[in-house]
């Protein structure tokens, strides 16, 4: 089994990173998941949270607002709705993301109310996550 796997993080505006990784922690909609080389194939949806990647050249973290991740034995690809390096995230950036989530929730149909409330709560929780 290989010691590393390919990790790619892409948002609509740009590719944020493409590196060799030893572990990638992903905020899945069903909970956090850490993928390592040799992981079983999986596709999952993302909730707002922090993607953490560790590799031979160091570690990096990115705030994501949602999207999808595809994991296989030798690669992880994250397609994020929005992704920002944690080093660039400020309290005002999180406030803007919360405002966007609240706007989406306001226009969501009644059957999506619970999902909309979870989106807002997860986005608000980012403030606490980036402090650590």
TrEMBL record:
Keyword annotations: ATP synthesis, Cell membrane, CF(1), Hydrogen ion transport, Ion transport, Membrane, Transport
InterPro entries given for it? ATP_synth_F1_dsu/esu, ATP_synth_F1_dsu/esu_N, ATPsynth_dsu/esu_N
Reading the lineage from the top rank, the first entry is: Bacteria
Location in the cell reads: Cell membrane; Endomembrane system
Gene Ontology annotations for the cellular component aspect, listed alphabetically:
endomembrane system; plasma membrane; proton-transporting ATP synthase complex
What GO molecular-function term can you cite, just one? Answer: proton-transporting ATP synthase activity, rotational mechanism
Could you tell me the membrane topology recorded for this protein? Peripheral membrane protein
Q: What is its main location?
A: membrane
CDD domains according to UniProt: F1-ATPase_delta
Note the Pfam families from the entry. Answer: ATP-synt_DE_N
Which family does the entry's similarity section mention? Belongs to the ATPase epsilon chain family.
The free-text function statement in the UniProt record for this protein reads: Produces ATP from ADP in the presence of a proton gradient across the membrane.
Q: How does it assemble?
A: F-type ATPases have 2 components, CF(1) - the catalytic core - and CF(0) - the membrane proton channel. CF(1) has five subunits: alpha(3), beta(3), gamma(1), delta(1), epsilon(1). CF(0) has three main subunits: a, b and c.
The protein in question is named ATP synthase epsilon chain
Q: Lineage in the entry?
A: Bacteria, Pseudomonadati, Pseudomonadota, Alphaproteobacteria, Rhodobacterales
